[in-house]
Automatic annotation (TrEMBL):
This is Las17-binding protein actin regulator. The keyword Nucleotide-binding does not apply. Residues 98-179 form the Ysc84 actin-binding domain. It holds the Pfam family Ysc84. It comes from the Bacteria. Transmembrane segments: none annotated. Residues 1-20 form the signal peptide. Keywords: Signal.
Length: 185
């Protein structure tokens, strides 16, 4: 591999990760900024998907990631910061990161909420050094801008994910495989 092609490869590989960090409050004043974004995201979510109020009321806790930025050109990445709320009070702050490789091009931003439907699921999340979304995750589907569905299965699933507020051009948004780490803002 020549020096030119190595530089081109490194630039192409690092560009999505650099873009993923844009606009997510990195270097922000800290917890107050994250909490303000979480409050706005909850208000938006409950306004556009009113059924999430019931989901939030039934949950043991909710992790709100108000702004996830995802970009990819073959190699992709996503990043965001948010807050874990229990009984409406912020108890911890988290970052979410993801990487992907495949047929992809573009960038998007979105918000997502993880509803921990059981105290055990919430406890497992809080005690893990780095929780990875996976098998115990159920998506609540939004079939259009104002319709939202959950069923009795998703209400008994340990963790329910809701993705909303998507903007940008990148095929799909998924949180499976994202890693969540506790941070000190």
């Amino acid at each position: 591999m020549t020096a030119f092609s190595r530089r081109r490869f490194l630039a192409a590989a690092s560009a999505p990760l650099a873009l993923a960090a844009c606009g997510n409050g990195v270097g922000s004043p800290g917890g107050e900024m994250i909490d303000a974004r979480v409050d706005a995201a909850i208000a938006f979510m409950e306004d556009t998907l009113p059924e999430t109020r019931d989901l939030r009321a039934r949950s043991a806790g909710m992790l709100m990631m108000p702004l996830m930025t995802e970009a990819g050109l073959g190699i992709g990445g996503a990043f965001g910061r948010g807050a874990l709320r229990v009984d409406g009070v912020t108890v911890d702050y988290y970052s979410a990161t993801a990487a992907s490789v495949g047929l992809q091009i573009g960038a998007q931003q979105y918000a997502h909420a993880l509803f921990f439907m059981t105290p055990a699921a919430l406890s497992n999340f809080r005690q893990s050094p780095g929780w990875v979304a996976g098998a115990d995750l159920e998506y609540a589907a939004s079939s259009n801008a104002r319709a939202f569905t959950t069923d009795t299965t998703s209400l008994t699933t340990p963790v329910v994910a809701v993705i909303f507020g998507q903007a940008g051009l990148l095929a799909g948004a998924t949180i499976e495989g994202q890693k969540y780490n506790r941070i000190i803002p």
